[in-house]
Amino acid sequence: MRLLLDTRIVLAILRKDAGARFPEIASLLGDSKTVGFVSVASLWETAIRARLGTLDPGIPLEDIAGSLEEIGLILLGIEIQHVITAADPELETRDPFDRLLPARARSKALQLATVDRLLVDHPLALRL
Question: Domain PIN: where (predicted)?
C-alpha cells in the first residue's frame, strides 16, 4: 500500500503520538508492505502555522524533514501539475493545502490517509 499522509497525521508522527491518536494508520505504517509519503505542502503548512503561533509541531522546524526521512517516510515535492490539477470530484474545503493533497495523491497513485472531515469521503481517501 502507498499512503500520502495528511498534515494532522504527520504532526502526530512528529509528536510521537500517532499510535495513540491514529492506531489503524500507525499499524499500516508499521507494515513493511506500506510505503508512506509526505507532501512538502504539509511541511509548508506546518511551518506557516508554527510561525503564526497557532501550532507547535513538537520539534524544531528545521528538523522536520530529516526526522520524517529518518523513519522511512518519502518526501514529495510540489510541481506545477499539482497546483493546477483540480481534485476530482471538487472538494468542499477552501484550504489550499487540503486541496493540494488529493491532486498530489492522484499524480503518484497514492491513497490519501486523512482524518480531515472534508477529505475522508474523497474517492482517493483511505477507507479504514
Answer: 4-117
Q: pLDDT tens across 20-31, in order?
A: 999 999 999 999
Closest by alpha carbon to 20, among 12, 31, 28? 12
- Do the beta carbons of residue 15 and residue 122 sit within 8 Å? no
Residue pLDDT, tens place only, 53-73: 999 999 999 999 999 999 999
Give domain status of residue 126, yes or no: no
Other beta carbons less than 10 A from residue 32's beta carbon: 6
Give CA torsion, residues 36, 42, 44, 46, to 10 deg. Answer: -120
- The alpha carbons of the chain give a radius of gyration, in whole angstroms, of 14
Domain around 102: 2-113
> Cell match 479504514: residue?
128
Residue 20 lies in a domain: yes
Domain tally, the chain: 1
Which grid coordinates are listed for 62? Answer: 528545521
Given its phi and psi angles, is residue 2 left (phi above 0), alpha (psi -120 to 50 degrees) or beta? Answer: beta
C-alpha 113/C-alpha 127 separation (Å) is 8
